[in-house]
Design brief:
The protein has 48 residues and is mostly helical. The chain has one domain. It has three helices and no strands. The chain is globular, with a radius of gyration of 10 Å. The model has no long low-confidence stretch (mean pLDDT 95).
């Protein structure tokens, strides 16, 4: 499934400081695979 940039940005805002929510809990809450979120997080960290 392809997710919009706004969904990705929203998820990353929840995971990154100052919120620091757990990837696993966000994955469960939103129904987005854990591996998808960790890929977004990796790409965000390597692109900046």
């Amino acid at each position: 499934m392809k997710y919009s940039n706004s969904v990705k940005e929203s998820v990353l805002r929840k995971i990154l400081p100052p919120n620091n929510e757990k990837v696993r809990s966000i994955s469960t809450e939103l129904g987005i695979p854990y591996s998808t979120i960790t890929t977004w997080l990796y790409k965000d960290r390597t692109d900046n």
